[in-house]
């Protein structure tokens, strides 16, 4: 008989009943160090007091009214995002997938309104992940995600990861945008080098097309800048955000320049829940913490500490691990052992990591993890690796 919960997930046999900062407490009382943060979502840890206060205060006042009316919390969060980024305007969603949907619509509408209705194609890259909607799976294009779900939404052109020459040749007068993750998450923590991102920006400018960055996983302080593209000193035209921005409350956003967003006039897009008072109240609390330069400096310092300890781990367990990669507190350990075996050995040692493609395990701890917790996490990873030694 089919389970009452549709069995689309391969779940670990763990059920957590409480969270405290970087710790998750299992129903049986065991305490796990959480280097997954709900897949880069709990950016400020579990049960963060500032976030709990923002949510409960809002919950006691007003939950939902719809976008038929002004939502002051939404305006405040949009103002914060605009103040701290390239963007002139923001649309709020409930997830990264919905942000992808709007990014696609916005790019196409931009050119439609400029009298170029044939510019509908969006270039994407192998190994990318943009969500599980019809547009999201068509954008990523992998067989794993698309098989059996056709006909796929047309208008996506898939290129090899990081092949600049292929990219130049693929841009035609039907191209409206390039969509890329500055650091691929699901694809196995693959950062696009700064020079590539700069080259991509130049190419988009030269060809007059839009640059869409998917910062759903790598954004909101994860790499040590508020948004990952800042490392390359460039700005996109459209950016997808979700995961960390809600700190665990479902919230996403599309940020855009005024020009890129010019087609999105009244009635062209909408969402019942998107930008509701609860989500935006929490989003404001997240932004007020993460956008602080001192907070980001601490993320970078801790990232350096973790990275250094992980290099030691690599050296000590060359039979289990191949290499470390990533940026800030978005790190991937390429494994020699099967990545799922390493994740499971982590569970046995009460440390949580997240598998990704390319036989990688991801370390995406809360951004406010402490130095002592980093030391303890690596000690537990060391024990997990030792248990796998061949
Ligand atoms: C998780 C993710 C998405 C999809 O976000 P959901 O909130 O799961 O819909 C899109 N893009 C990237 C890069 C992601 O990591």
Automatic annotation (TrEMBL):
Q: Where does N(2)-acetyl-L-ornithine bind?
A: 132, 271
Return the protein name. Acetylornithine aminotransferase
What else the UniProt entry mentions is: May also have succinyldiaminopimelate aminotransferase activity, thus carrying out the corresponding step in lysine biosynthesis.
GO MF annotations in UniProt = identical protein binding; N2-acetyl-L-ornithine:2-oxoglutarate 5-aminotransferase activity; pyridoxal phosphate binding
For this protein, the record's HAMAP family field holds:
ArgD_aminotrans_3 (MF_01107)
Q: Which cofactor does it need?
A: pyridoxal 5'-phosphate
Q: Which GO terms describe its biological process?
A: L-arginine biosynthetic process
Output a single Gene Ontology CC term carried by this record.
cytoplasm
Please tell me whether the keyword Secreted is annotated for this protein: no
The biological pathway it contributes to is: Amino-acid biosynthesis; L-arginine biosynthesis; N(2)-acetyl-L-ornithine from L-glutamate: step 4/4
Name of the gene this protein is made from: argD
**Cofactor: how bound:** Binds 1 pyridoxal phosphate per subunit.
Q: What is its EC number?
A: 2.6.1.11
Where N6-(pyridoxal phosphate)lysine occurs along the chain? 243
Q: In which family does this protein belong, per the annotation?
A: Belongs to the class-III pyridoxal-phosphate-dependent aminotransferase family. ArgD subfamily.
Signal peptide span: none
Q: Which cellular compartments is it found in?
A: Cytoplasm
Q: Which UniProt keywords apply?
A: Amino-acid biosynthesis, Aminotransferase, Arginine biosynthesis, Cytoplasm, Pyridoxal phosphate, Transferase
Under the heading InterPro entries, the entry gives: AcOrn/SuccOrn_fam, Aminotrans_3, Aminotrans_3_PPA_site, Class-III_PLP-dep_AT, PyrdxlP-dep_Trfase, PyrdxlP-dep_Trfase_major, PyrdxlP-dep_Trfase_small
Catalytic activity field? N(2)-acetyl-L-ornithine + 2-oxoglutarate = N-acetyl-L-glutamate 5-semialdehyde + L-glutamate
Highest taxon listed in the record's lineage:
Bacteria
- Subunit structure, as described in the record: Homodimer.
Q: Where does pyridoxal 5'-phosphate bind?
A: 96-97, 129, 214-217, 272
